[in-house]
Amino acid sequence: MASRQQNREEEEEVDVENQQEEEEEEEDTYLPLSKLEGQSGIQAADIKKLQEQGLNTVQAVAFSTKKTLCSIKGISEQKAEKLLAEAKKLVPMGFTTAADFNKQRSEIIQITTGSKEFDKLLDGGIETGSITEIFGEPIGGHIMAHASTTRLSLRKGKGEMRIAKVYDSPCLAESECPFGIYGDGISDYKEQ
């Protein structure tokens, strides 16, 4: 009897912990407007004006235009700019500068295919962090990826030779190269 009581208490504790975690996740998802209060002169009256117009989260303010905020009675252009600036500090906007994007691209690693010619075609190998779709007769014609970054077409050549062609890529020119598939894996094509 005591063990049943103990089990119920443990289950109740787990339920309370799960409910708290869910509430924390909800807080992480949508930030209440109260987070803006006190920042750069933003007052409770300003928050109330936003809520009356249906802007109930920091995200809603961050994704609003200055014109939209200025159309709210009692929100001046200067106040709208402050609201937007403070909201955007709290909400990741999803924009990346060219410098940041360039830095991210410089950190990409290429994985070798085993063939120097094939790697040269791919500007160093298959990129990590992206999806490379390979299709063609040697593969059996199956589509392997619907959200691919780079698409390669493979076709059979003479003997052990295969030909890889860059079919579609945002960063590689359309070109092709020969390579071979041998018992020890993929490598440069060796004429026999």
UniProtKB/TrEMBL annotation:
Residues 138-191 form the RecA family profile domain. It holds the Pfam family Rad51. Residues 9-29 have a biased composition (Acidic residues). SUPFAM superfamilies: P-loop containing nucleoside triphosphate hydrolases (SSF52540), Rad51 N-terminal domain-like (SSF47794). Residues 1-35 are annotated as: Disordered. GO terms for molecular function: ATP binding; ATP-dependent activity, acting on DNA; DNA binding. It comes from the Eukaryota. One of its GO terms (biological process) is DNA metabolic process. Transmembrane segments: none annotated. InterPro entries: DNA_repair_Rad51/TF_NusA_a-hlx, P-loop_NTPase, Rad51_C, RecA_monomer-monomer_interface. Keywords: ATP-binding, Nucleotide-binding. The keyword Nucleotide-binding applies. This is RecA family profile 2 domain-containing protein. It comes from Dictyostelium purpureum.
